[in-house]
C-alpha cells in the first residue's frame, strides 16, 4: 500500500516536473523575445479584464513619432474630454497645453460646427471610422479622423487625428468665388446676347417695314407717273385738235 502511494507520488512529480519545464521554456522564449525587441507589449489577463503593458524601448519611438508628426493627435473620452494631445494640436488650437488637456474639444470648435461634432462623437463604434471637417474659433479648418480604441486598452477612448486643411479650404473658397464671378459674367453675356438678338429682331422688323413702305412708295410714284403721262398725252391731243 505504501509502495503504491510512493510510486504514484513519484509519477505525479515527474508529470509536474515536465509541466514546469514546459512553462519554464515558454517563459524563457517570451523573455528572449522581449530582450531581442520582437515584442512591443504584453497582454495580461486579470480580474479587470485584459490589460496591455507596453515595453518602454518600443513605446519611446512611437511617442517621439506622435510628438513630431505634422498632424494633431488627440486622445478623447466618449464625452469629448481631451486626455492627451501632441504639440502640433496645441499649435492648431493656438492655446497653452494646460488649457487644452482636460478641456472639452468642442470648446475650440466654431459654433456652427459644434452640433455635428457632438453628434458624430456619439455615433462612434468599434467597427466605424469617420471623418469630419470643422472650423475652429480661430478660423483654422481641420479634417478630423475618428477611431474608437479597442476595449482591452482600459476604457472607451477615441484616437483623433487632426489635419490642417485651412490652405485647401482657402483655395476652395477662391475657386468658389471665381466660379460665382464666371457665372455672373456668363449671365451678363447671356443677357447681352438676348439684347443683341432682340435688337436684331427689331432691326429686321424695321427693315421689313421700310421695305414695305418703300415698295408702296414705288408703286405710288409709278402710278403718279402713269397718270402724269396720261394727262400729258391728253393735253397733247387736245392741242393738236385745236
Element layout with pairings:
Blueprint: H1 2-35, E1 41-46, E2 49-54, H2 56-68, E3 72-77, E4 82-85, H3 87-93, H4 97-100, H5 111-122, E5 129-135, E6 141-148, E7 157-164, H6 166-241
Give your account of this protein's structure.
With 242 residues, the protein is α+β, with helices and mostly antiparallel strands. The protein has three domains: 38 residues; 119 residues, Beta-Lactamase (2-Layer Sandwich), CATH 3.30.450; 77 residues. The protein is built from six helices and seven strands; from the N terminus they run αββαββαααβββα. The strands form two sheets. The chain has a five-stranded antiparallel sheet with strand order 4-3-7-6-5. It has a two-stranded antiparallel sheet with strand order 1-2. A hairpin with a 5-residue loop joins strand 5 and strand 6. 8% of the residues are buried.
Attribute tags:
60% helix, five-stranded antiparallel sheet, 242 residues, 3 domains, 6 helices, alpha+beta, two-stranded antiparallel ribbon, Beta-Lactamase, disordered N terminus
Amino acid at each position: 500500500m505504501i509502495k503504491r502511494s510512493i510510486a504514484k507520488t513519484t509519477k505525479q512529480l515527474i508529470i509536474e516536473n515536465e509541466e514546469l519545464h514546459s512553462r519554464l521554456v515558454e517563459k524563457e522564449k517570451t523573455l528572449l523575445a522581449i530582450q531581442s525587441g520582437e515584442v512591443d507589449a504584453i497582454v495580461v489577463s486579470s480580474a479587470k479584464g485584459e490589460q496591455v503593458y507596453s515595453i518602454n524601448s518600443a513605446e519611446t519611438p512611437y511617442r517621439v513619432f506622435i510628438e513630431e508628426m505634422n498632424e494633431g493627435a488627440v486622445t478623447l473620452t466618449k464625452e469629448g474630454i481631451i486626455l492627451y494631445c501632441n504639440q502640433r494640436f496645441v499649435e492648431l488650437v493656438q492655446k497653452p497645453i494646460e488649457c487644452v488637456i482636460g478641456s472639452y474639444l468642442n470648446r475650440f470648435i466654431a459654433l456652427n460646427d459644434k452640433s455635428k461634432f457632438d453628434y458624430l462623437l456619439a455615433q462612434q463604434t468599434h467597427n466605424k471610422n469617420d471623418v469630419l471637417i470643422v472650423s475652429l474659433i480661430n478660423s483654422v479648418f481641420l479634417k478630423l479622423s475618428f477611431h474608437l480604441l479597442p476595449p482591452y486598452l482600459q476604457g472607451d477612448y477615441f484616437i483623433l487625428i487632426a489635419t490642417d486643411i485651412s490652405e485647401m479650404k482657402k483655395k476652395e473658397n477662391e475657386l468658389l468665388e471665381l466660379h460665382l464671378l464666371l457665372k455672373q459674367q456668363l449671365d451678363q453675356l447671356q443677357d447681352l446676347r438676348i439684347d443683341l438678338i432682340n435688337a436684331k429682331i427689331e432691326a429686321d422688323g424695321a427693315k421689313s417695314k421700310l421695305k414695305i413702305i418703300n415698295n408702296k412708295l414705288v408703286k405710288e410714284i409709278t402710278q403718279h407717273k402713269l397718270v402724269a403721262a396720261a394727262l400729258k398725252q391728253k393735253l397733247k391731243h387736245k392741242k393738236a385738235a385745236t
